[in-house]
Amino acid sequence: MTDTAIKLFKALADRSRLGIVHCLMDGEPKYVELLAEELKLAPSTVSFHLKKLEEAGLVSRKKEQYYVEYRLNKDVLQATVQSLVQEAYSDRSLQEERAQRYRQKVLDTFFQYGKLVSIPVQRKKRQIILEQLLDQFEQGRTYTEKEVNDILRPFHEDTATLRRELINERMLQRTPGTYWRP
User: pLDDT tens string for the chain (182 positions)?
Assistant: First the structure.
């Protein structure tokens, strides 16, 4: 998300500010005292919230004689929401990159010299390890329990736990004595 969008949503995350925005949506500029009267808030409270809205770019002010009038910047509101929708796709690639770095960090932590140092307790990390082990199994081929153990043993001595976890996570399926990768 862009900084502008974050500021916008933070500014709108307050009931009083939403009320101010609502009052300004008719397009007519308003001054602090009028907004305070409409919203039944203290003028100092309205001024505080207007400053936050102005920092987010949602309102602009203009000095008119003795008063400062505030007006809603509808273009900023609409453009920011549109840009957020467009950025969702670029954020996906960033999230995928982060996920890949996390995956590699987990693999580097739990695999030393090709052997599994320990079986992670945390499910997310354990799933990454199991996915890595799953690559050792061909799709469409059936394996005996001994063959499964022979494939897993070079990685970790506790083949029964690894086998059970692969079944629990539905990465391998089994019937008595036969295992396969779905």
Answer: 456 777 788 888 999 999 999 999 988 999 999 999 999 999 999 999 999 999 988 999 999 888 899 999 988 777 766 676 666 566 667 778 889 999 999 999 999 999 999 999 999 999 999 999 999 999 999 999 999 999 999 999 999 999 999 999 999 999 998 999 99
Q: Is the CB of residue 72 less than 8 Å from the CB of residue 11?
A: no
- Determine contact, residues 34/20, Cβ cutoff 8 Å: no
Domain covering 3-76 in this structure, CATH number: 1.10.10.10
What pTM value is reported for the model? 0.53
**Domain ranges, ordered by start, for the chain:** 3-76, 113-180
Query: What fold, for 113-180?
Result: Arc Repressor Mutant, subunit A (1.10.10)
Q: Max Cα separation, the chain?
A: 89
